[in-house]
Amino acid sequence: MSVFNYNHNGIDYTKFADDPLVAVKIAQQMEEGYVAESLFEPLMGSSQDRPIRTYPHATMNPYRPKLSDQLLGDGVQGNTDLDRNIDSFNRYSQTIYPMVKRNSLLSEIKEYRDIKDPDFVRDSEHKLTNWLTNQSDRMIIAAMSADMTNVVCASKNGKGYIDGKGKNSVKEYCSEITAGDVVSVGTIKKAISMARFGIKYNGEETFSLRPSRISQMTEGGIKIFKTSYLVLLDNYQAEQLQADPVWIDMHARAGTRGYAENKLFSGLLGEIDNCPVINMGIWTKTQPGFLNTDVPQTDFEKYVNDAIRKNSSFVLGDYAGKADKSTSIGAVIGGTGIAYVGSPVSFIIDNTADSGTKIKCAVSKVLGVAKTCYEVNNEDTMSPLYHNQDFGVIGIISSKE
């Protein structure tokens, strides 16, 4: 008797040929599974205070999440007519162009399948779930890293960051990075300060990033929500931070670490200014992780929202330092930093492949991911404070060493 003939998680995989609900149940399980295995699962949710905000969207039609600016008018007082001050209410957002992500696996003929892979359908579910997680994570990282409008560049100058005053672009600012300009506590504190107070890399005023809700507790019957920004680093940046004497001293004095009772962030390094610092790994051929300027442009750009590819000349090399010095790309992210739109997973089992001698299993999902960005539409009033500015992400650029 084949080990294929058993019930797993309420799904009887042996009945896939007779019961169409088997594929439906597998699809539902995959929908939960691919998110649960994601690097970003703790950051995802449908509310505006989640760093990666999810939107249901089952078609290929372009999607434009609604981001509104602040009302800046003075209003009126007393008996003054309201017509004297009618404020401007605009909604800005970068358009997301979803794509269909699909993949499939084909079994061998029954005689070989019974020997080599009697659980082919169940194994296909696992392999295709892992593939979908990989694709989703790479799309999130690529979106987060593409064409950043605000960054902080690390420095060995004692302050921890390069002064960007007078710089006219992120590319020009990053070109100041040289060997030894590594991430320190000072770098992270500057990035958090820029997020909180609404400061651009060159010192100009911009809007503050919306904090993300990262925990909730109840004391005395009162709900207390902890809101903060998340600091996401690659392996190189994480090791640089951990080598900073200030960081070492902070941890020596800290005693019991924050989040000791909360295993939500498996890569948590610690906290700076009440903001969790998380190691997100590095991008390789075999695993998703954070990018650096040594990653080939072709490996990166195939995961980027079409709006970036069509409307921007951006390349990862724009973050390179002086004389094309290789750099790492981290980020501070707040609420709704990334917009994530998609359909439910579809799982297909075809037992008619190769004249009915093989089984083909396939997965399909409409998916679109983009960094939220204020983008003026024709009907909107352009505001220099918001136009073409990232809504919830500030980059952290440092020497890759």
| Structure annotation, total helices | 10
Shape descriptor reads: elongated
Mean pLDDT: 83
Instruction: Name the helix and strand elements from N-terminus to C-terminus, one letter apiece.
Output: EEHEEEEEHHEHHEEEHHEEHHEEEHEE
Radius of gyration: 24 Å
Class based on secondary structure composition and strand pairing: alpha+beta
Amino-to-carboxy terminus distance = 56 Å
Uncertain parts: 1-7, 69-73, 84-89, 258-266
Q: Tell me the fraction of residues in β-strands, as a range.
A: 15-25%
Quick one: biggest sheet? 6 strands, mixed
Number of DSSP strand runs: 18
Helix content: 25-40%
Commentary on this structure:
- Strands 3, 4, 7, 15, 16 and 17 form a six-stranded mixed beta sheet that branches. A six-stranded mixed beta sheet has the order 8-18-14-11-13-12.
- With 401 residues, the chain is of the alpha+beta class.
- The protein has helices at 21-36, 110-116, 120-145, 170-174, 185-197, 235-243, 245-254, 297-301, 306-311, 353-356; strands at residues 7-8, 11-12, 44-45, 52-56, 67-68, 91-92, 99-106, 151-153, 212-219, 222-228, 230-233, 268-272, 275-279, 327-333, 338-342, 346-352, 358-371, 393-399.
- α1 (21-36) crosses α3.
Tell me the layout of helices and strands.
Layout: E1 7-8, E2 11-12, H1 21-36, E3 44-45, E4 52-56, E5 67-68, E6 91-92, E7 99-106, H2 110-116, H3 120-145, E8 151-153, H4 170-174, H5 185-197, E9 212-219, E10 222-228, E11 230-233, H6 235-243, H7 245-254, E12 268-272, E13 275-279, H8 297-301, H9 306-311, E14 327-333, E15 338-342, E16 346-352, H10 353-356, E17 358-371, E18 393-399
Parallel strand pairs: 3-4, 4-15, 8-18, 11-13
Antiparallel strand pairs: 1-2, 5-6, 7-17, 9-10, 11-14, 12-13, 14-18, 15-17, 16-17
Helix pairs in contact: 1-3
